[in-house]
Amino acid sequence: MSAPVTVYVPRDAAALAMGADAVARAIEQEAQRRGQPVTVVRNGSRGLLWLEPLVEVATPQGRVAYGPVQAEDVAALFDAGLLQGGAHALCHGPTEEIPYLKRQERLTFARVGITDPLSLQDYTDHGGLQGLRRALDMAPEQIVDEVTQSGLRGRGGAAFPTGIKWKTVLGSPASQKYIVCNADEGDSGTFADRMLMEGDPYVLIEGMAIAGVAVGATYGYIYVRSEYPHAIAALQEAIARARQAGWLGEDILGSGRRFDLEVRKGAGAYICGEETSLLESLEGKRGVVRAKPPLPAVQGLFGKPTVINNVISLASVPIILARGAAYYRDYGVGRSHGTLPFQLAGNLKQGGLVEKAFGLTLRELLFDFGGGSASGRPLRAVQVGGPLGAYLPESQWDIPLDYEAYAKVAAMIGHGGLVAFDDTVDMLRMARYAMEFCAIESCGKCTPCRIGSTRGVETLDKIAAGGPQREQQVHLLRDLCDTMLGGSLCALGGMAPYPVLSALDHFPEDFGISAARAAEPAA
Ligand SMILES: Cc1cc2nc3c(=O)[nH]c(=O)nc-3n(C[C@H](O)[C@H](O)[C@H](O)COP(=O)(O)O)c2cc1C
Ligand code: SF4
């Protein structure tokens, strides 16, 4: 009997939702029926979501991709020579040659979709643990300096320099310090954290262990949103295996250093993604924002100095330590160093994950990667950076994706999610949705957000109703946004005006007013 052929069928939640389990079973059964041995590996997703389930076959010339595959396609695929990479309507040729993947710069996602996410051997065979091993030979200050020099900024939204945050925790003496990973991933159109946790959980574990060694923290928590059961299961299994292999525990990699961690399921509110609210939730309380100062870096979880970072921030650390700060810093533009996993969602033909260096444009993402609208109609607006991000009209699609360039036009890159809309979108409704979202998700601690968002919905309803008061209501709305922008305690109330004002500024016709009248100050 010939040696088994390796076939990859993703275990990622997006692939599972499209029937990946049934496809994996069908492949095993068909192979058995034909006496053609296969080894089915359940990998992470390559991020080409419109092709899920994307099945790959290992051939002597490399992996060959087929997708989207359904269980009922499997017999015909075997007839076409699936196990030899044979031609078929669903075949996309060598996976690495698919333009969507080939044009990417995968640093943080280097292993996602390639390895078996739970295999310790696969992880180390593909460069895993090099960063942690190097960190264990360095002084804490050197590790922090390396992260600072890399230019890495928080990928959770605020883009705060990671090294500076770590330095504060390192410099805060305490009997106990913590590393907290923010995996609440509440932004609309985002899924990079989930894909990474399901597709390469060890890289997050390694990043957290490096953070622990750097700042003197011996324990970590990964706060994962409750809607991510597959990510939670993958992390729990990976943590158990890593502990058993001595990558975690009392003596990590035989270094005499201690670090361990556990997964906590989120409480199911958008505000629990805000770092201080998350800490409250981790402590078993309701997710309400804490006033700052004190910063979590000084008094965080249970009052102890705490590093709180997003999944992608922490998962980017191993490659920075393994390849050096300069290697990472060389990617990107201006003060936006490294790469970002952009997430393409909404009305696009080719939704998925694109890791690229900062500096490319929205137009490239929408058309070169996204393939334009799924509906075939012209694209009109793109919301970048989650539900609190601005809507960008076509005139802004050529601005380089760079934190500072986006801030200049009152937009934000945030967690790198973008949601595209075609020309059937009603921007007044989208503005109303932003205010309504804020009203529903507000933690209630401060007045501009708690009351302002409800008044905002009412004002937008009056504008929608039309009539002679419409322009006055628009001015009132601007005034209200101003108060929320300046007076809110956290970015939920402080940024909800971004989508509202961008909709008003760029699409005034949807509010029933001309551009000139929309911009007039209140009488
Ligand atoms: C309303 C709100 C929701 C947030 N949700 C998330 C989230 O889901 N995931 C995340 O990483 N950061 C989120 N943040 C940002 C965090 O407060 C914090 O900046 C981040 O965890 C810091 O990690 P980083 O420096 O690695 O980005 C949110 C902030 C606000 C104001
Ligand atoms: S802005 Fe909203 S969510 Fe943030 S503290 Fe105030 S009430 Fe809470």
Report what the structure shows.
With 523 residues, the protein is an alpha/beta fold. It has 4 domains: 98 residues, Glutaredoxin; 211 residues, NADH-ubiquinone oxidoreductase 51kDa subunit (Rossmann fold), CATH 3.40.50; 90 residues, Ubiquitin-like (UB roll), CATH 3.10.20.600; 93 residues, Up-down Bundle (de novo design (two linked rop proteins)). Helices cover 41% and strands 15% of the residues. It contains 22 helices and 16 strands. The strands form 4 sheets. A 5-stranded mixed sheet has the order 2-1-3-4-5, covered by helices on one side. It has a 5-stranded mixed sheet with strand order 13-12-16-14-15. A hairpin with a 2-residue loop joins β3 and β4. The chain is globular, with a radius of gyration of 24 Å. The mean pLDDT is 97. Bound molecules: flavin mononucleotide and iron/sulfur cluster (SF4). Flavin mononucleotide binds next to β9 and α20.
Gross morphology: globular
Task: Name the CATH class of the largest domain.
Answer: Alpha Beta
Assign the CATH architecture of the largest domain.
3-Layer(aba) Sandwich
Distinct ligand kinds: flavin mononucleotide, iron/sulfur cluster
Descriptive terms for the model:
single chain; 523 residues; alpha/beta; Glutaredoxin; Rossmann fold; Ubiquitin-like (UB roll); 4 domains; five-stranded mixed β-sheet; binds flavin mononucleotide; binds iron/sulfur cluster
